[in-house]
Specification:
Blueprint (H helix, E strand, L loop, with lengths): L1 H6 L6 H53 L3 H12 L2 E5 L9 E2 L6 H11 L3 E6 L4 E8 L2 E8 L9 H40 L12 H46 L4 H26 L7 E3 L1 H14 L4 E6 L5 E3 L1 H18 L3 E7 L3 E8 L9 H4 L21 H11 L3 E6 L6 E8 L1
Parallel strand pairs: 2-3, 7-9
Antiparallel strand pairs: 1-5, 3-4, 4-5, 6-8, 9-10, 10-12, 11-12
Helix pairs in contact: 2-3, 2-4, 2-5, 5-6, 6-7, 9-11
Amino acid sequence: MFFAWLKQYMPRSLYGRAALILLLPVVSLQLIVSVAFIQRHFATVTEQLTSAVVLELAYLDEAVSQAEAPQTTLRALGRAFDVGVRFVPADTVPEADAYSWFDLTARRVMSELHAGLDGLAAVALPDDRRVVLWLETGAGVVEARLRRDRLSAPNPHQLLVIIVVLGAFLSLISFLFLRNQLRPIYRLGQAAEAFGKGRHLPYKPAGANEVRAAGAAFLDMRARIERHIEQRTLMLSGVSHDLRTPLTRLKLGLSMLDSDEREPLERDVEEMKQMIDAFLEFSRGAAEGEAERVEPRQIVAQIVEDFARMGVNVELGVVEETGPVRLRGAAVRRAIENLIRNAVRYGNRAVVSITTTERSLCVSVEDDGPGIPEEHRADALRPFTRLDPGRNQNRGAGVGLGLAIAADVARAHGGSLRLGESEALGGLRADLWLGR
């Protein structure tokens, strides 16, 4: 439970996590060693120095209490012990000890003084240079002023400063080496992301052996996928091209028949031609053209205008400003056209909208048709799948490739095609998500 709560505050990037792995143990070790060293070293030095001063002040207390001339004895011992001493009224003694909160050895000094001097009334450590204490003797209250370096090691904070500065410098050097090790991984990620969006980013394996092996595997995979796409395109294009010749001969032969016999056969030939065109379109997929900076708003507006000129009831909905986006314009246009054709085939009205996020672009096509049940939406995206029993066909039949082509284009741009229910029109809502 604790780790689940902590996980949300962990860095998301590889750089951040690597830096945390590097810095957290180093900083923790430095702090632990520093605190332990200061506690052990400075505490021991402080105890030894304070013990020597306690012996001197204890002797001064005893001598002044038994002397016939306390003032003279006090002055003599003060000069001998290099301590500034004088008698002060009892009402000038502070009620409590005083010290700065950032003084690392103040508490140890006061503890040793109180433990060694029974008549010690109060101690003040105003800074790291002076110590003032009030000692009750048999002759009166004595105020003693000493140099701080006689009681504790000077400037204990310097060790912490040195450790922090040195740790930061070494961490910077480590981060530079770490960045050089992570840069090949970052470049591999960029190349994989670009390939997922249909772009070919130059990449050369570099870095450690493991990273080089992953980079070489990525290049092999990318080459195999590109060969597969090319072979599929050539195969389907060849088949589609070869079928056009006998279809042309059939149309010529049918033109010589009587109209009553010719019309049903011509409809069959025309349907076969539409199927071949759909196969050819599917074979091209998203491989047509190179990705370039285009304006999605202009593409969608032009598509809607073209359909409107053909008498199709299509209108433009909410369109957000997106700015130029790197896309394969021809492939995206074909995908949107297929979604609109699918919408008006099963409905009477279609609305096209554009929404954006920080990393993606969404083109939505809604219709007022019967929609697709949720349990059949995954099947609708498969090639050559037709859900005719579940949807009334108002305007001709298809071959089951319209949504598959759109989904293929979306995947080639690092996105997906999602089917849902239109809240505004009550029919199908097709969201074409494209990576930006």
